[in-house]
Each structure stands twice: as C-alpha cells, then as structure tokens.
Amino acid sequence: MNxxxxxxxxxxxxxxxIVNGEKTEYHICEHCAQEKGDVFTGFHNxxxxxxxxxxxxxxxxxxxxxxxxxxxxxxxxTCGLTFAQFSKSxxxxxxxxxxxxxxxxxxxxxxxxxxxxxxxxxxxxxGGQLKIRKELExxxxxxxxxxxxxxxxxxxxxxxxxxxxxxKMAQS
Amino acid sequence: xSQQQFMQxxxxxxxxxxxxxSDIVISTRLRIARNLRQxxxxxxxxxxxxxxxxxxxxxxxxxxxxxxxxxxQVIQMDQVNPLEKRVLVEKHLISPHLAEESRKGAVLLSxxxxxxxxxxxxxxxxxxxxxPGFRLNDAWEIGTKIDDIFERNLxxxxxETRGYLTSCPTNVGTGIRASVMLHLPALxxxxxxxxxLQAINQVGLVVRGIYGEGSEALGNLFQLSxxxxxxxxESDILSNLxxxxxxxxxxxxxxxxxLLEHTRVSLEDRIFRSYGxxxxxxxxxxxxxxxxxxxxxxxxxxxxxxxxxxxVLNELLVTTQPGFLQQHAGQKxxxxxxxxxRARLIRERIADTEx
Lengths: 172, 355
Ligand SMILES: [Zn+2]
Ligand SMILES: [Zn+2]
Hints:
The structure holds two protein chains of two kinds. By secondary structure, chain A is mainly α. In chain A, 56% of the residues lie in helices and 8% in strands. In chain A, helix 3 packs across helix 5 and helix 8 runs antiparallel to helix 9. Chain A is elongated, with a radius of gyration of 23 Å. The model of chain A is unreliable at 37-50 (pLDDT under 50). Chain B is an alpha+beta fold. Chain B has helices spanning 3-8, 47-61, 64-69, 82-90, 96-100, 136-153, 185-189, 193-201, 234-280, 286-301, 310-319, 322-329, 335-353, and strands at residues 25-34, 73-76, 106-109, 115-119, 125-132, 158-159, 163-164, 176-183, 205-209, 221-226. Chain B has an eight-stranded antiparallel beta sheet, with helices on one face. In chain B, helix 10 (286-301) runs antiparallel to helix 11. The radius of gyration of chain B is 21 Å and the shape is globular. Residues 211-215 of chain B have low confidence and may be disordered. Chains A and B meet through strand 1, helix 3, helix 7 and helix 8 of A and helix 6, strand 6 and strand 7 of B. The complex binds zinc ion (2 copies). One zinc ion binds at residues 3, 5-6, 9, 28-29, 31-32 of chain A. Chain A: It comes from Brevibacillus choshinensis. Chain A: InterPro entries: UVR_dom, UVR_dom_sf, YacH. Chain A: Pfam families: UVR.
C-alpha cells in the first residue's frame, strides 16, 4: 500500500484514530508523518496533551521572533521530530528528542514539574556507566593539565587510571 | 493461569480489601514508566519495531531472575477480543489506551494480578503494581525490583539531567505515578469534598474518578495521585502522597463519625434503602449500582450493616461494569439486559455472603 499523503513512498505507519467511537485509519510513510504534525495531534485526543501544547505555544519565556524561528528548524536527528511537531503533540518521538530539543524544554518542565533536574533513582547498570564516564572526563582533563605543565609522572599515573577505567567500561 | 481465567475470574488481589486502612483506601497503585534507548516510542514505532520491543521485554520476563519473583503470562493485545480487553480495563490491569489505540501492545500479568506490565502503551514498558489497602511502600518495593531486573537486561533510556526519558514530558524524571483509590462518601455527603480537592491541586497532587482522565467519580471513589515526576525523588513523591492521603483518611473518618452522631437516623435510612434496593431490585443501571454499593459499603464500614463482607462490594464494583457483565454472559447485551443481569448478580452475591 502506498502512502495516502504523497502517494509515492510505501506506507509504513498505520495509525488508528478513535474519536467518540468513530474509527479512522491512516496509512502514511514515515517521511510524511514527520512532515505532517497533525498525525501526532490526531492520534492523541487526550486532554493533557492539548494542555501541554498550549503551554508551549504561548510561551512567555520565548521572547524574540528570532528565538521562535530557531525553534522551528530544531529537530531530532534520530526520529525527525521537529520542535513545531512536538509543541503540537506534546509527545516525544524517541529518547534522543530530549537531547536535540535540549534546553528549549526547560520552561516546559519548569511549568509542569517546577523543576528541570532529575534527583531520583539512577539505574544500576546504565547509571554505573554514567559515573565512570564522568570520572573519565575528569581524568582526561587532569592528564592534559599535567602534560601541559610537564608533570610526566603524574600524567603517566592518570594515563594508567584512564586505561583501567576504559577496560572496566568495555567489560561491563 | 490461562488467558481465559484472567477474563473469567472477577477476583483480583487488589479487590480482596484486606490492606491497612481498607475501610477507606480500596487500593494502592504504582506505575513505573520506562523506555528503551534506540527504539522509537510506541506512538511512532512501526509494527515490526513494536514487535521487537515486545520480544525483548518478554525475553527478560522469562529469565530466571524474573521467574524467581513473578511468573508472568504474556497476553498480546491483537489476540484478545474487544470484550476481553474491556474486562482487563475494568479490572484496572490495562489502560483504555493499550486496549484501544496501541499497536503491537501486550500485557504481562502475574497470576494474582497484582503485577501487570504493559508493553507499547504510551511508553515501551509500564510496570504496574496494584495492592489492596494503603500500601505505597510495598508497591514501590515490588515495582522497583522488577525495574532493576529489566534494567540489568535492557538498555534503558536514561539521562543524567532528565532521568528516565518518557514519551510524555509529564512523566519524565522518576517515571513514577503512585495513586490510592479512596472511598469518600462522608466527605461527599457533608459537601466538604470540593474544598479538599481544591487544596490537593495546590500541593502537586491530582484527583480523578476511578476510570481515569475525564470520567466522573463513580460511587464516591476518588483516585489521588502525584503530578510531579521531575525534581523530586521517589521517596519524596511517595511520602508526599502518603501524608496527604493520611489527612484525607482522617477527615473522612471525622465526617463519618459526625454523620453517625448528628444524622444517624437519616444516614441509616439512606444506607438501608440502598441495601434494600440492591437486595430486591430486578433492574439497576450502572451509575445507580455504584452509588448504592457505595452506601452499603459505608454501612458495612460503620457497622450499620453487620452481615455483609466488604470484599463483596469491591468485587461487585468491578463485576457490574458493562464489559464484565457481557463477558460473564458470553454475549453482547443490550443496556436493558445488562441492567437486569446486574441486579441479579448483586442480589446473588449479597445473599451468598449473608449468614
Ligand atoms: Zn508519504
Ligand atoms: Zn527523537
């Protein structure tokens, strides 16, 4: 089956939309799905998302026209979701959206949660890696400073610790 | 337990009504939202991408670590008919969203139905723990251990600053939504409820009717849950909810005592009228059934009606729902037929427990 939007590419997304018990089916390609933010909005006739979308559209934090046009071109490189689509749907497309939309999300988080920073549970395995990665960054910085100041013994020590950590990371 | 039994058996663990404060707190529910890295969220995923997530999650559920704790049975949504889905929704084991809108959705159920894990709902994984009575900490203990097993075997989408990444920005951070289902007839009768609900909104909690978003509070049942998931630790969220629920429970008890002391005759009259209707009516609509069941439940909790088990009431609140009645009948029923069956079911169940 070909995409109902462009008629060219094969339809890979099959969405069922149910509004007041009435069922509509969409068959579109991923390209058109990304172009057409409506699909996102239509898919969820869920009040909380309209609310979120309202929060994003009338964002007083977003003062200049320049900033809002910068938002328009912002998109997730993994799933292709644009900031505009996100502000319509109130939903992310994948976990990388958080990275690509980045700081632009802060005002929204602040309004929903009063916060922007997670302080709860850290997953054991993935969290452990994060910890090691942070430590690695610090060691590498220290290594560079020691090299720059020609403290080679200390630099060698850093290098060994970096190697040990990298091995640990590779094993886990 | 077979798929068939999940549908036929009206009893879920959470309906057994024997938890702490079970005169007011019907059940405690905890939901943990988790997603996998490098998989589009269910909303965007293709069928084959959705299938892959189900396969990965199922694999972990069959691992020794999980088997040691829970024997989960997988039910694929595309292999369940609409009526059976409705039963699962009415038993609070899956969400309406998973039943109606998800593609390649599945649910993993423990035999006692206290654990249900939705796959490809709005998020890849939603672990739900449902317990009778007021047991927030127990629910968290059970949920977080399941979470740990999944995390050891799957690549979770987690970020240092944002925490657990979810499809909807309202769940990001801890990804947890904890809730308690409260039966508050005396606060409704004394018209204090709206004042209390307003105050609740100001402390980062929300209240809903028992069937979630947009539905009204059937039978004086209210679901109190946390709103904030980012910037608060799990224990803060739980203790905040605990504290507010505790206060509401005490206020409901005060209101009940007040009603008994000041309006005993009219209160007893109301309770016994409802009891009488449920015992003798030949047809009853679901809304009325919920209200009458609420009155009788209050009567039991106050000792006004001594011979009926409160557990029957919890069960009836679920089994008198349209999906359940039709599933029980094995056929589609007209509203009139449902009202008749509902009346009969209630009569029989109440008569069963009377001595
Ligand atoms: Zn197309
Ligand atoms: Zn994305």
